[in-house]
Amino acid sequence: MQIRTLLAGSAMLALLAGCAAGPVSGPDAPDAEVDEERYQGTLPCRNCDGIDLDVVMQGDEQSQPEERTFTLQASYRAHPEDPPDENYSGNWEVLDGTANEPDATVYELTPDGEGQIYYFLRLDESTLELIDPQRRRFQNSEMLQLQRQ
Questions:
Q1: Using the 8-state DSSP alphabet, how is residue 68 labeled?
Q2: For 37-61, what is each residue's pLDDT tens digit?
Q3: Which pTM does this prediction carry?
Q4: What element of type H or E holds 143?
Q5: Within 13 Å and on the Cβ side, how many CA atoms surround 74?
């Protein structure tokens, strides 16, 4: 009987010791590393002074698809109709290549629900460029770039 009690007590101590070694929270907790990239820029607009885009991409290319999320905010500068800001969130995918650059990296941002799908060509570590759905660059491509913040 004493052996069974001793074994049960040892098992309980091991279980409690495992709980005590769990994640640390509070001011002494190590910072959790969040894979997040923010890009900003102003796109041309026919009826206004420009469209300010703010894109935040979470996750990385090796993340599971459901972990690759984004938010996108579009604000119109001095638009005569004063439209509200557009806010989208959803998931992003990595596509390989463009029409002229088969080794290029393209990000496809698909909003949840309604909204436009955005395609961005990764030019380098700090620059994304808006491209068309057929993954072709526009003539005024330098005006369609977002810079990493």
A1: -
A2: 999 999 999 999 999 999 999 999 9
A3: 0.75
A4: none
A5: 16
